[in-house]
Amino acid sequence: MTLIKSEDFISSVADSLQFISYYHPVDFVEAMHQAYLKEENKAAKDAIGQILINSRMCAVGKRPICQDTGIITAFVKVGMECQFDSDKTIQEMVDEGVIRAYSNAENPLRKSIVAPPAHGRVNTKTNAPAIVHMELVKGNKIDIHIAAKGGGSENKSKMAMLTPADSIVEWLEKTVPLMGAGWCPPGILGIGIGGTIDKAMCLAKESLMDPIDIHTIIERGPENKIEELRLEIYQAVNALGIGAQGLGGLTTVLDVKIKEFPTHAASLPVAVIPNCAAARHLHFSLDGTGPALLTPPDISNWPEITLEAGESIKKVNLDGITPAEVASWKAGDTLLLNGKILTGRDAAHKRIQELVESGQPLPDGVDFNGRFIYYVGPVDPVGDEVVGPAGPTTSTRMDKYTELMLGKTGLIGMIGKAERGDATIELIKHHKAVYLMAVGGAAYLVSKAIKASRTVAFADLGMEAIYEFEVEDMPVTVAVDSRGEAVHKTGPTFWQKEIAKLS
To answer: Is 271 helix (H, G, I), strand (E, B) or coil?
Structure first.
């Protein structure tokens, strides 16, 4: 019988969560670099370049890859010949590890978990509880696969009860475009097939823990039906031309993972869960000899990339920006933002709406007239940092507030990630405003452009408070211009046709 010390379990969970907050898996870095080398769309190539630069910076600086440091999922397989020195449950031990990791003073991680989920939604302030899947297996050790999953990619999960005659590939060809770009491609698709629909979702999530190996299958050829299906899906999804950050391009997925389970003769449950550019996961084992030993990857595994500056890049001073200058920008332009911007996410927008609808003034210092808002919830700073990692959140969640912000507050520009809905694009066009896209998955890199930060309003909301940032050369792409042209529509359409020519 193997005796596992609860402290070894808890400290291993805590250490692993710190580890994956700043170290990408090396296989992911290598796959992303290959996508960077072959990408032909400059906007998509620049986005992948920013993700790789950010990844290297985080590995060196030991700071979070993304400001959304995730909800924790742990797959814990306990050998039947193991016992613990404590009466704590697996859930309690995982949660204790989460609490330790997320309150680490040297690298505090953003706490994003709220409870209860339907009413109130108050931050637990610990990032616990985690999602724990526990299984008893043969053997005398404990295997743990742990992941920190960002909300932007988790929100794009899809499931379907297909019939046995339906094509899984055809379903995915229709479904992946519906995910939009909020999951920060290029990334990995985890697919679960079979069982019941709840089992399919667990299979899809667990498949994301597997190493990237699609290029091995391409080189040697598929050896079984599942590998054939993985390759077919990989090729079909990349042929959609969605590309990095939804800008259009050659690579939308780096790999496709599949796990399956027997199912009812009348059923074909299928689930797909995308993993974003912050692919945070790790496997370790405990055998009673102490906590897990986590070996840092060699920094030489990261490519050294320098983004090219070109004549097409425009420096912009947001302080005193005029409608005429905003109108001169075209979809696809690259801008370097300078000056002051306000921030705000879901909770802040809801409070603004309540104030406006009740006829109350906005808090002192909250004046959006002629200004830009950045959809962000940053990580707390450490040391001499002005702000912690501060990448964009998914903009579509703010679509329902767009008329309020553009029509009632005088806002002229928004900054976030991914596409906007058709109705929002029309509102941007109507108000002659603009929507700018920052790269999701480059949070630490973006934070270095923030030279000053102060809390302006709603401090009780924590990371969802309204801040004022002073930025210097913050890189963004014009995603929707004042004429209503949207790169998330034109880019994939163009590159889907280009890819078709190559096949």
So the answer is: strand
CATH number of the structural domain spanning residue 172: 3.30.1330
Strand partners, 372: 413
Spatial contact of 83 and 3, defined as CB atoms under 8 Å apart: yes
Give the tokens for residue 256: 């496709």
Same domain, 199 and 249: yes
Task: Give the Cα separation of 176 and 173 in Å (integer).
Answer: 6
Same-domain check for residues 119 and 214: no
Q: How many CB atoms lie within 10 A of CB 253?
A: 25
pLDDT attached to residue 347: 94
Token readout for 120 is: 């109130």
**Residue-number span of the structural domain to which 444 is assigned:** 313-491
Q: What is the pLDDT of residue 502?
A: 84
In terms of Cβ atoms closer than 10 Å to its own Cβ (0-12, 13-18, 19+), residue 275 is buried
Distances in Å between the Cα of 99 and the Cα atoms of 10, 95, 281 are 10, 6, 17
- Same domain for 110 and 199? no
Neighbours of 89 (CB within 10 A): 12
How many structural domains are present in the chain?
A: 3
Same domain, 125 and 156: no
Letter for the amino acid at 94? V
Q: Quick one: 326 and 269 in the same domain? A: no
For 240, the token pair is: 């959609």
State which residues of the chain have pLDDT below 70: 308-312
Is residue 231 within 8 A of residue 222, CB to CB? The reply is yes
Q: What is the pLDDT of residue 311?
A: 61
Does some domain include residue 11? yes
Indicate the SS3 state at residue 38.
helix
pLDDT at 394: 94
Count of C-beta atoms within a 10 Å radius of residue 164: 10
**C-alpha to C-alpha distance for 392 and 329, rounded to whole angstroms:** 21
DSSP state of 165: T
- DSSP labels, 448-493: TTEEEEEEEE-GGGGGGSEEEEEEEEEEEEEEE-TT--BHHHHHHH
Domain limit, last residue, from 292, 307, 322: 307
Smallest CA-to-CA distance from 344 within 360, 362, 326 is with 362
Rounded distance, CA 501 to CA 494, Å?
11
Question: Per the structure block, which two tokens stand in for 173?
Answer: 């060809």
Helix (H) or strand (E) holding 197: helix 197-207
Burial class (CB in 10 A: 0-12, 13-18, 19+), 233: buried
Element (H, E) at 495: helix 487-502
